[in-house]
Write a structure and sequence with these properties.
96 residues; mainly beta; six-stranded antiparallel beta sheet; 6 strands
């Protein structure tokens, strides 16, 4: 809970990530971050593709205990309404 990430990778291959995130409500039951979703068009391939940025929000919730006296968010939703991609929900593997 001490670290408020300014960047979150949303794909396994790095072709999508949210950058420049600023948070409100960090440490509370739900926190919301505002940033830019960068998505690689992978044309002609992902290594040579071009990234396009979309205004986005990242909402984290469902605080879960781990370790000794620590908590972490166990659910994350990334939404970029102006992008051609639907909102993504991540709910596994977020708590170490």
């Amino acid at each position: 809970m001490k670290v408020q990430p300014t960047q979150i990778v949303t794909s396994a291959d790095g072709s999508g990530y949210v950058k420049d995130i600023t948070w409100s409500g960090w440490g509370k039951a739900t926190a919301t971050g505002v940033g830019t979703l960068e998505v690689d068009n992978c044309t002609p391939n992902c290594a040579q593709g071009t990234y396009t940025g979309y205004p986005s929000t990242v909402t984290v919730s469902s605080l879960s205990p781990y370790g000794s006296d620590a908590e972490a968010y166990s659910e994350m939703v990334v939404s970029a309404p102006t992008s051609p991609y639907p909102p993504e929900t991540f709910s596994s593997g977020l708590v170490p």
